[in-house]
């Protein structure tokens, strides 16, 4: 089992914790990690773009001029794609980009992402993060004490003050153990976990 240091909000080491290899020490499956990221981005796509084809635009019910003898190229409709105001060739239509992954694949992808953070020493465990008031400055000070900038902070309990305090810091995102995902874990340089968050993750995924 990997052993990592535990820090307090002042950035001082107050102990250590052993991470379960079944969650934080698995062999990284790059294919599933890539698949999980693509799935999340695809599922977030709205797929609402739409353009009209020549059958949907208004007008063009008759030939603009006769077939021969005018000196112009033959035309069948003023709403053909080559005309201004005409329809779009192979126009995009609303569609669903989402696809599914098996539950076991999702779990292994998340474990792989967590394990990669441990391997790269980009994981910090904090004994607790609590705030009596909503104050961005106070939360930024905690991040400075931990010497992290771009970080995903995973909280074990629903601490509304902490979430609200971190909201205005563009390089930090907070998440609960129920909402963590592969994309966010990989997007942020450092993964900051509270001790109770580690316990909950290990309880669910071990």
Describe the model:
By secondary structure, the protein is α/β, with parallel strands linked by helices. The chain is built from seven helices and six strands. It has helices at 21-24, 30-44, 103-119, 136-145, 160-166, 182-187, 195-205, and strands spanning 2-7, 13-19, 123-126, 151-155, 172-176, 190-194. A six-stranded mixed β-sheet has the order 2-1-3-6-4-5, sandwiched between helices. Strand 1 and strand 2 (13-19) form a beta hairpin. Helix 2 packs across helix 3 and helix 4 (136-145) crosses helix 5.
The major sheet is characterized as: 6 strands, mixed
Q: Name the helicity range.
A: 25-40%
Order of SSEs? EEHHHEHEHEHEH
Radius of gyration: 27 Å
Give descriptors for this structure.
206 residues; alpha/beta; 7 helices; 16% strand
Strands, helices and their partners?
Elements lengths: L1 E6 L5 E7 L1 H4 L5 H15 L58 H17 L3 E4 L9 H10 L5 E5 L4 H7 L5 E5 L5 H6 L2 E5 H11 L1
Parallel strand pairs: 1-3, 3-6, 4-5, 4-6
Antiparallel strand pairs: 1-2
Helix pairs in contact: 2-3, 4-5
């Amino acid at each position: 089992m990997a052993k990592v240091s535990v820090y307090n909000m002042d950035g001082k080491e107050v102990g250590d914790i052993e991470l379960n290899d079944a969650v934080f020490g698995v062999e990284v499956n790059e294919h599933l990690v890539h698949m999980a990221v693509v799935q999340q981005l695809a599922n977030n796509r709205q797929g609402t773009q739409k353009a009209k084809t020549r059958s949907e635009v208004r007008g063009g019910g008759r030939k603009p001029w006769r077939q021969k003898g005018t000196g112009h190229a033959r035309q069948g409709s003023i709403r053909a794609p080559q005309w201004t105001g005409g329809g779009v060739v192979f126009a995009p239509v609303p569609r669903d980009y989402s696809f599914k992954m098996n539950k076991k694949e999702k779990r292994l992808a998340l474990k792989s992402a967590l394990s990669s953070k441990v391997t790269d020493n980009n994981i910090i465990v904090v004994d607790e993060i609590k705030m009596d008031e909503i104050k961005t400055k106070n939360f930024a000070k905690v991040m400075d004490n931990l010497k992290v900038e771009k970080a995903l902070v995973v909280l074990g309990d629903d601490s509304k003050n902490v979430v609200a305090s971190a909201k205005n810091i563009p390089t930090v995102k907070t998440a609960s153990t129920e909402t963590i995902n592969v994309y966010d874990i990989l997007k942020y340089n450092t993964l900051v976990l509270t001790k109770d968050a580690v316990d909950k993750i290990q309880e669910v995924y071990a």
